[in-house]
């Protein structure tokens, strides 16, 4: 039975990955989820798995060297899947230091702990161990409007926000460990994820929640910034396939082939909501493009991201399965069916509950 150490598993992508892994492997794996339970970490995301005998939650910060080393000392970890990161660009503009601390120093702590646990006296590493560092396409910077321009694994790094700079730095650390120590690792750089359990500061859940409440839908600048959208379960599958089939020391870009302007995303959500709501629902009358409000553009706002996932398809056989038209409907339905989850998140009730549970005063 393989033991997986998942960092940031109470967050959006991490929790979806855990659900995917249990759905695929059932009782044949063990997962240890390490999360500091910051505002974006929510154990309600994992209610369905918390009672499994092969699942363990550990509340710890990835910068806490003693806590992370203890986990490795007490468990024979086969795989590390490193999601834990501060990831919201706007927050990084306001407070860059916490992004450097978590994303750079936290990654260094994880690398050192895994190296210490897995390294043999001759400097090689125990067979079968692997560290996967989950990163972002934002490290590559911004593309122009040329539809034939894409990010490849060989694209030079050119980060423009404190967030993307911190992720680029963490990528470089992992690359350095692979080059210097032949540390058994891979890096994945993904495009924008969407789907269940996403914290509503991000575009899609924010627009869904605001639209249903009849609130303004803020759109940066002219709304024509382009992102490549990846359904989160497709991403989870890609991570698993890289862990099992990826060549050591390689980077794999994970993209969705779903390029959309931000304004397209907002209008699509309004259209789908209007289709899904009954005519008798009072919320439907408020749903219109008039809710869209253009606001001052984000500082250093990248114009376009687009990933070419050619390498991961060729070497591993992964490609996205969920096109945006299908994925956005799945996502909206999930939020419809989990209104209580959204209410807890937007009210902050989940933070109060887990603060009390873990004596976080």
UniProtKB/TrEMBL annotation:
Keyword Lyase set for record: yes
Top-level class of the enzyme under EC nomenclature: lyase
A single MF term (Gene Ontology): dTDP-glucose 4,6-dehydratase activity
Catalytically driven reaction(s): dTDP-alpha-D-glucose = dTDP-4-dehydro-6-deoxy-alpha-D-glucose + H2O
UniProt-listed InterPro entries: dTDP_Gluc_deHydtase, NAD(P)-bd_dom, NAD(P)-bd_dom_sf
One Pfam family of this chain: GDP_Man_Dehyd
Occurrences of domain NAD(P)-binding (ranges): 5-331
Cofactor: NAD(+)
Key words, A-Z: Lyase, NAD
Biological process annotations from GO: nucleotide-sugar metabolic process
Family: Belongs to the NAD(P)-dependent epimerase/dehydratase family. dTDP-glucose dehydratase subfamily.
SUPFAM superfamilies cross-referenced by the UniProt entry: NAD(P)-binding Rossmann-fold domains (SSF51735)
EC number(s) reported in the record: 4.2.1.46
Protein's name in the database: dTDP-glucose 4,6-dehydratase
């Amino acid at each position: 039975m393989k033991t997986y150490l998942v960092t940031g598993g109470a967050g959006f992508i991490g929790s979806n990955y855990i659900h995917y892994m249990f759905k695929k492997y059932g009782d044949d794996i063990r997962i240890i989820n390490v999360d500091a339970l910051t505002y974006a970490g929510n154990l309600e995301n994992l209610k369905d798995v918390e009672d499994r005998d092969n699942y363990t939650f550990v509340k710890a910060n990835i910068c806490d060297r003693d806590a992370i080393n203890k986990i490795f000392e007490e468990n024979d970890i086969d795989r590390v899947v490193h999601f834990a990161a501060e990831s919201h660009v706007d927050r990084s503009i306001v407070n860059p230091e916490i992004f450097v601390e978590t994303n750079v120093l936290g990654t260094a702590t994880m690398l050192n702990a895994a190296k210490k646990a897995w390294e043999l006296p001759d400097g090689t590493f125990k067979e079968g161990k692997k560290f996967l560092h989950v990163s972002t396409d934002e490290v590559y910077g911004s593309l122009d409007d040329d539809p034939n321009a894409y990010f490849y694994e060989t694209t030079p790094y050119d980060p423009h926000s404190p967030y993307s700079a911190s992720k680029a730095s963490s990528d470089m650390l992992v690359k350095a460990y692979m080059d210097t120590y032949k540390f058994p690792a891979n890096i994945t750089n993904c495009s924008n994820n969407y789907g269940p359990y996403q914290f509503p500061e991000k575009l899609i859940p924010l627009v869904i929640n605001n639209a249903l409440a009849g609130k303004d839908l803020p759109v940066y600048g002219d709304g024509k910034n382009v992102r490549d959208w990846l359904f989160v379960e497709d991403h989870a599958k890609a991570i698993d396939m890289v862990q099992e089939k990826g060549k050591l020391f390689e980077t794999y870009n994970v993209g969705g082939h779903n390029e959309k302007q931000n304004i397209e995303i907002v209008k699509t959500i309004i259209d789908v909501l209007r289709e899904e709501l009954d005519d008798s629902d009072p919320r439907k009358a408020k749903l219109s493009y008039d809710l869209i409000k253009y606001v001052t553009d984000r500082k250093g706002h990248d114009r376009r991201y687009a990933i070419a996932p050619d390498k991961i398809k060729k070497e591993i056989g992964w490609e996205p399965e969920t096109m945006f038209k299908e994925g956005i409907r799945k996502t909206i339905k999930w939020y419809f069916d989990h209104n209580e989850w959204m209410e807890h998140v937007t009210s902050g009730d989940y933070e109060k509950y887990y603060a009390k549970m873990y004596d976080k005063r």
